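Worked Example 4.2. Consider the chain below.
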Amino acid sequence: MLDTTLDLDTAPVATPGPLRELWRAYSQSRGALIGLALIVMLIVLAAGADVIAPYPPNEQYRDFTLAPPVWHDGGTATFILGTDPVGRDILSRLIHGTRLSLLIGLISVAISLALGVVLGLVAGYVRGLTETTIMRLMDVMLALPSLLLAIAVVAILGPGLINAMYAIAIVLLPHYVRLARAAVIAEAGKEYVASSRIAGAGPLRLMFNTILPNCMAPLIVQATLGFSTAILDAAALGFLGLGAQPPTPEWGSMLAGALEFIQRASWVVTFPGLAILITVLAFNLMGDGLRDALDPKLKR
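Applying the procedure from the previous section yields the following structure tokens:
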């Protein structure tokens, strides 16, 4: 009689997929999970701002100017977080500001990431004078304080939300260029690149199809961290009057418009400041978790 029992020692073991393995490594950090939960909540608020916000963001209620939050003396449940100096509901403006801040971060990071990847690939693959020219330009940009560089760009282009996004993208650009260049140099000398070159792959195919997919891990982490930098710089430009212009519900411009009332109505600056703090902290926690999950040396 044939022995039909299964040999457990030789049975194939199912290996988790790359996404499941990434999630397993990511979920080991409690801070990363908190950051992810906060980002999901912010995305929900941004997507459903028109439904979730109790009032239109620019609607003025002149009988309730500088109304305190509901838990303060004189507060009312009509305006849970109070109102600003012209009677607009702070909670509604914060919720709509979430959509604007995430949009600023997304567009700024997307522009800088795309340009940074292209310039980094060219510098790391071509080398020579091209690499020197690109990297010296990036060094000059890094030598300037980021906010000062953003202010200079906005001063040239003119104040406004769109120009502020361009300025933030320029400020973030050197980080992606340097990361992409370093990753390309590390990957260009490996055997799979030489094999593709021998097989007849051209320079563009080698750069974008062969090398770039293996360089994305550090760029993804930097893009996540870049969200927090973009949101913080946008708030700073809005505070200085160079970003989103009133009455746009942007957190930095909300701080600037209420600064003179900080002593008699502290809530008008407290809540926008907390919104910036929580959002920046959430993206930093998520970025740290992704760095640990994507780097084999840092996996727990």
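Residues 121 and 208 are 8 Å apart (CA to CA). DSSP finds twelve helices and no strands in the chain. Compare this with Example 4.1 before moving on.
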